Amino acid sequence: MMHRRAPPDPDDPANLLKEDGVSVCSQMWIENFREPDRIVSNLSSYLRRFELWVLAYQKVCIDETGSYMPKSSIQRPALEDLLALRNAVLDNRFKWGARLDFFIKSPKDKTDYQALSKRKIKALLTTTQPTPFQDRIVQEVLLMILEPIYESSFSQKSFAFRPGRNAHTVLRVIRRSFAGYLWYIKGDLSTILDGVKVGLVIGSLMRDVRDKRVIDLIKSALVTPVITTKIDDGEKKKKKKRKYQKKRVLAEDEPKPDPYWLETFFGFAPEEAEKRPNWGHCGILSPLLTNICLDELDRWMETKIKEFYKPSKSDVIWNCPEGEQEHGNTSWPEFVPTSGPDKTRKMDYVRYGGHILIGVRGPRADAATLRKQLIEFCDQKYMLKLDNETLPIEHITKGIMFLDHVLCRRVVYPTLRYTATGGKIISEKGVGTLLSVTASLKQCIKQFRKLKFLKGDRDPDPQPCFRMFHATQSHTNAQMNKFLSTMVEWYRFADNRKKVVNFCSYIIRGSLAKLYAAKYKLRSRAKVYKIGSRNLSRPLKEKKGQSPEYHNLLRMGLVESIDGLQYTRMSLVPETDYSLFPSNWRPDHEKALLEYITLDNPKTQEEQRSCIREQGLVSPQDYISMLVWNYKRNAIPLDQLSLLKSVKNNADSDQKLLLSLGYDKGNGDSKEEEEENEGFHVAQL
After folding, report:
1. Which residues form the Domain X domain (predicted)?
2. Which pLDDT tens digit goes with each residue over 198-219?
3. Which residues of 589-623 are buried (b: 16+ CB within 10 A; e: fewer)?
4. Is pTM beyond 0.70 here?
């Protein structure tokens, strides 16, 4: 008796996982980069894709538990709860900021909310709580859906909160594009990161997305109030001295805190990168929404750049009417001739988060006019009240601070070589400027003082790093080496990279020397350097005559090796990175996407085939198909020929065997019998 197979259950989470979540995301990126200017009206189909919800769950679990959870390790109850969360979002039953009723909980959350007392419930409802686990999953899903749509159409002038772009990208763009600009407008629009009107965000979103369900979901995240604890000045309690607390041992599934070197480096974040937007319950969506709102400012500035550009035929660098030309001097791209009334008027613009930088080559009056127009635009579009103080105009000779780097110029007197209209080579001794991007030593001292590594301004004095007092010398040196390596990478594109990194190494080395002097009671830094050497690589706790030599213990594996501090001499610091930065630069993932879209286009494939035919070449695909076709066409005759050869060989071998046994061919079988034997061999084959 046959049993009929039951039909698949549409509500079974296992039946909804048809594809991998990463492949679904990749397809979304490809579709949006193939048509970057389209208006998307149906995103609910992506909201229904359960693969995206599983991928979002895995991402949030990484932040929650500190380890990656494979799809096969997700338990069935968790998948069912995740499916319930997805259905609640699709049916408009999901509420942001829930405190007691959850569709899905964190794997770490073992709280029984139904058994809580009234006092604990009141505390949950009235005090500041971390973002619920289910809210973070919904934020991740929305980010995966919306990011490819807007990344394909964002301006190339914005660099913050975007994949593949960072502060280093801004510095390289400034070094390439801002050479020769005399006047700079530096603006701080970071107040828009603190909060913005809901209507402005929704209006900016609806320029490219017209899906009502997604728009309503983001609108509810912005409108729903966030419950925070408010403490009046009179209710502030005096700080009590904390008693000694025993160090808590972390669980296996508990995320590890940031190491000390990474926490210290985060303290070095420049002013422009320090503030991160957080609007309502949007969470990780807030940076993307910020770029969506400020993208209109980027587009407006791009039109102003084209309007402002006025080339001059007497200029040896910028004299192309289109304004999209490369720099004239590729061997010395930072150098441009001095400006004047008969020179090219040009400007450029970059934005990093809420901070903008505009460079103007021309008279100061042009910069003042542009500033006035910018104030009017921000007032009309963002209802942001700006004035001349918030948008100062500064000359390059004063030094422009941006991302803790100073933009300045050096006047040089080279010989300019260019071709005149008649084709004659002209050589002139001219005056030009060289753009210099240097790390601000003043800002570096300020950041170290904020982290309590030193005190004083003119003569900075290192202070002991007591936070590492209970750590071993090997662990402390390793932490500081990681910090110094990160600082070397941060100042990679600074002209004074060697100087500033050597200063950082001096502060760290002095701080550790004072720490070790206090820890091992060695009285002074000089004593520490005498025992531990200049880079503090020798052990300080071993005293002469009380234990074997350190090298013997290290050879036997009884002590851990101590790495000396790096970059204790300026010659050990790597050189500044002056690698060329192309004008049409794009991140690696965008270049891969655009190349894939180009190769996947049938028109491109047809052009490549026609080009191959014209040159008389054969593509590898055509060559392989030709080989296969020839093999199939000649396969049957070849098989018959090999069969006849094998039959003949078998007959000859049988005849030789009979002769060896004493049978003569004449005394043996007749002709008919020989044919019968040959037929027998054929039958055997």
Report:
1. 437-538
2. 889 999 999 999 999 999 999 9
3. ebeebeeeeeeeeeeeeeeeeeeeeeeeeeeeeee
4. yes
